[in-house]
Amino acid sequence: MKNVPNIAGGLLGLTFIVFGLNHWLHFIPMGDGPPEGSPPANFFGAMFATGYLSFVKSLEILGGVLVAIPRTRNFGLLVLGPIVVNILAINIFLIGGGAVFAPPVIAVSVLSAYLLWAARRRFLGLLKPSSD
Fold this sequence. Notes:
Layout: H1 4-25, H2 39-50, H3 52-68, H4 73-95, H5 103-118, H6 120-124
Helix pairs in contact: 1-3, 1-5, 3-4, 4-5
């Protein structure tokens, strides 16, 4: 049980590194994508055209590396937390149709939740009032 957080961190980190790098290297075929003119197509079109998607993918790679290293895992979770929430929100509100149950979405959500739970004592320390 002692190594489970390390395995989960490695898997989560690898997932974000691979999908982040795929943005530039295109080694995973992504299919046709959403229909032209649909809300998901417009959303991703705006993110791509403005360069915002490249910024998010850079944070995914950075967060993936930090989560994979046990010493920096909690900082990596802080970087990846908003990204995971947005992945869930996009799949629920924009894509719909059960997209939230896609294996990568489930894997990222479960691994992130587990690592957050495993480090809950350290994160709860952020909520304590300072003694300044």
